[in-house]
Structures are given as structure tokens and as C-alpha cells.
């Protein structure tokens, strides 16, 4: 017998909660309030978002991380970030309203990828940001906004 408890996480609720937090933090907030948070996560600092209780059993801290190592070209700034985030949040909102599949993928390590990309084009350069959740041991949930290899999202027939 083990001491482990099975905790079922409602991913739809987690995605919805995350979308609301990110919307308030970066989209609806005045730019002078949102930019310092962006600067922190751009510098690699995890930004604490608060705590959530899972099934009245575990209190988890939630933090936000940003990985823009695969952002292509110059011009990575708050406006580019916010535009990509709007793309993700718009798709999440549409999927939640229509109650359709959120296109969730999981890794063996427990990372959950929400494959609803926020795509932005600066000049000829496409950049793509996705959202992932690292659930760890459920004590610390990390929300990761990541720019990923954009070539995998290019329409077929278009190559450089």
C-alpha cells in the first residue's frame, strides 16, 4: 500500500482559470502594470500567481514562466508577447464557449501542452507561442508560455 493519493485535475477548469488570470494580468491591465511582470518573466524569473486548492486536499502554488529562446528575429518586446498571448487566449475562449476539444497533449514527464498556438508575424518572420502546464508534484504548478519552432506551423506549400 502506498501513501500516494490520486488527484484528478480538471484540465478544462485549470485552462479556464489560467486564461482568466493571464487576461487580467497582461491584456486588461494597464500597460504600466503589465510590463513589469513581463520584464520579470522575460528575465527568467518565475512570477507567482497565487494558490489554488485541488479537490480540497492539496494547496498548490501557481507560477508563470516564459521561454522565448526560440523566438526568431529581433523585436521581442511586450507588444509582440501580448499579441501572441491574445492569439492563445482567443482560441481558448472560443474552444471553451463551444465546448470543443482544447487540443491537449501530455508528455511522459507530466507536462501538459495546450496546442492552441498564438502566432504572430513580424515582417516575413513567423513566431509561435504555446502554453504548457508543469504539474510537478502538484504542490507547485508552473504555467509556461513558450515560443516554439515556428516552421512546424507554417502552411503547407510555403517554405523559405
Low-confidence stretches: 1-5
Strand order of the biggest β-sheet: 1-2-6-5-4-3
The count of DSSP E runs of length 2 or more, i.e. the number of strands, is: 6
Biggest sheet descriptor = 6 strands, mixed
Query: pLDDT average, as an integer?
Result: 87
Distance between the termini: 57 Å
Question: Helix share of residues?
Answer: 25-40%
Portion of residues in beta strands equals: 25-35%
Count of DSSP H/I helices: 3
Helix- and strand-based class? alpha+beta
For the record, the count of structural domains works out to 1
What does this structure look like?
The longest helix is centred in the middle third of the chain and has 21 residues, at 78-98. The chain is globular. The chain contains three helices and six strands, in the order ααββαββββ. It has one domain (11-43, 50-116, 129-150). α1 runs antiparallel to α3. By secondary structure, it is an alpha+beta fold.
What's the gist of this structure?
The chain is an alpha+beta fold and 160 residues long. The chain has 3 helices and 6 strands, in the order ααββαββββ.
Keywords:
160 residues; alpha+beta; 6-stranded mixed beta sheet
How are the secondary structure elements laid out?
Elements: H1 11-27, H2 31-42, E1 47-54, E2 58-67, H3 78-98, E3 104-106, E4 111-122, E5 125-134, E6 140-148
Parallel strand pairs: 2-6
Antiparallel strand pairs: 1-2, 3-4, 4-5, 5-6
Helix pairs in contact: 1-3
Amino acid at each position: 500500500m502506498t501513501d500516494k493519493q490520486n488527484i484528478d485535475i480538471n484540465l478544462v477548469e485549470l485552462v479556464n482559470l489560467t486564461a482568466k488570470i493571464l487576461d487580467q494580468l497582461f491584456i486588461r491591465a494597464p500597460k504600466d502594470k503589465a510590463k513589469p511582470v513581463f520584464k520579470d518573466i522575460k528575465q527568467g524569473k518565475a512570477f507567482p500567481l497565487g494558490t489554488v486548492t485541488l479537490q480540497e486536499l492539496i494547496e498548490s502554488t501557481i507560477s508563470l514562466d516564459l521561454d522565448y529562446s526560440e523566438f526568431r528575429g529581433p523585436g521581442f518586446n511586450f507588444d509582440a508577447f501580448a499579441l501572441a498571448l491574445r492569439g492563445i487566449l482567443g482560441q481558448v475562449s472560443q474552444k471553451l464557449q463551444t465546448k470543443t476539444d482544447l487540443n491537449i497533449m501530455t508528455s511522459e514527464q507530466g507536462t501538459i501542452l495546450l496546442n492552441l498556438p498564438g502566432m504572430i508575424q513580424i515582417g516575413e518572420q513567423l513566431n509561435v507561442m504555446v502554453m504548457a502546464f508543469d504539474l510537478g508534484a502538484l504542490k507547485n504548478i508552473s504555467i509556461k508560455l513558450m515560443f516554439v519552432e515556428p516552421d512546424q506551423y507554417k502552411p503547407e506549400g510555403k517554405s523559405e
